[in-house]
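Below is how a single chain appears once it has passed through the pipeline. First comes the sequence as given, then the structure the pipeline wrote out for it. We keep one example in the README because the format questions we get most often are answered faster by looking than by reading.
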Amino acid sequence: MIDHESILETINMIKLYNLDIRTVTLALSLRDCIDSDVNILCENIYNKITKYAKNLVEYADEFENEYSIPIVNKRIAVTPISLIGEACKNPDYVKIAQTLDRAAKDVGVNFIGGFSALVEKGCTKGDKLLIESIPEALRTTERVCSSVNLASSKAGINMNAVLKMSEIIKKSAELTKDKDGIGAAKLVVFCNSPGDNPFMAGAFCGIGEPECALNVGVSGPGVVKAAIEALDKDADLSALANKIKQIAYKITSTGELVGRKLAKKLNIPFGVIDLSLAPTPAEGDSVAGIFQAMGLEHAGAHGTTAALAMLNDAVKKGGIMASSHVGGLSGAFIPVSEDAGMIEAATKKYLTFDKLEAMTSVCSVGLDMIAIPGDTPTSTIAGIIADEMAIGMINKKTTAVRIIPVADKCAGDEVVYGGLLGRAPVMSVNNLSSSGFVKRGGRIPAPIHSLNN
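Resulting structure:
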C-alpha cells in the first residue's frame, strides 16, 4: 500500500534537498522488428519506438507539474541491438544506431539505451559486428548509449571480450576527442548486467522482460544527507541506519506513486523502481556529502567503504518495504564526474583509483565516469575491467566500468562535459604492465558457488 501521508511529507524535501525522480525509462522489446533487410529493420524500429514513446515526454511533464516533483530524464531502453540486427543479410549496425538516435530525438527523450551485446560466454557474428561498430555509432549519434556484458557469476569472465572492449573504449574516446572523449562516457561494460536497469548508459530491455514497461529511477542523496545531519550528534550507527531506511521508504513511495500513474496513463505495465541514490554535480546532491555527514572528514578517508556498505544496505532495506517491485541496480552510485563531493575528493587526491575500486565491492555499480590519461595502454584498461568484473563475479553482484581515456590529457588535467555528466579530474592509474596476463585470452572460469542448481 502506498502511504499518501508520507508522500505529502516528502514533497517538502524537493525544494530544499534536491529530491527528484531521476528517470522514467520506457523499456521496449524490438524482437518483432527483426527483418533480413536492414532498411526494413530500421523502418520497423523507428515506427515502433515512435508509436510507443510518442507521449512519454508530454505525459511525464504533466505529472511533474501535477505532483510538483522534478522528473529529470525521460529515456528509452530497447532489446540488445546485437540480437536485433543479427538476422540481416546486409547488417549495418551504425545505421541502426542512427535510426535509434533519430527516433529518440523525434519523441524528445534525452537518451536511448540498448546498443548492446551480451557476451559473457562468447560472441556470435552479430555480437562481433555490433562491438566493432560502437565507436563510429557513438561518434555519429547524440542520444545513443551502449553497453556490453562481459562477465557473470554463472559464466565467468570472457577475457577475449574484455581485451576487445578495452580497444573499443579507447577508440570511442579518440573519435570524440574534440569533446573530451564523450563517446566513452556513453559506453559501459558490465558483470551481471540487469535487464531492467533504467539508468544510462547501461539500460536495455532484457530478454525476459515484457513487450514494454515503465521503469523508474529515484534519487535523493541530499535528502539522506539532511536527515543524517538532523540526528543527534551522539546517535550511533544503528540509529543512523534506521534513519536512512525511513528516508529511503519515503523516496521510494514517491517514485512508485508517480511511476504507476504515469504507466497507467501511457497504458503500459509498471516495471520496477530502482532505488539507486544517483548524485549530480549540483551542490548538496552528493553521495560523498553523505559520508561527511556520517562523520568522515571526506570521501576517501579510511572508513569510506564501510560507510558506503551501510548506506547501500539501508537504502535497499527501506526501499523494499515501500515497493514489491524493486529492480535495476538499487543502491548508491559513486560516479566521479557526476558528484560534486567525489570531484573535490579526487581533485585533492583524497580519493585514489585503488580506493574507488575497493568501494565498488559494496556499491551498486562500479568504476563510473572516471577520466584517465589518454595514453593509458589498452592492456591496462583491460586489467582495470578484469579486476572489476572479478569483484562482481565473485560477489554475485552487478559491477561496471565506465572509464574515459581522454586524448591529449594527463593526470591532474580536467575534463568538462556539462549537465549531469559534470566534470572530472584526470586520475592516474598504475603504470605496471598487465599485458602478459590479459593477452592470454580465454575465459576466467566461474567461481565454485556458480554450481548452485
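The CA atoms of residues 384 and 392 lie 13 Å apart.

See the next section for the split statistics.
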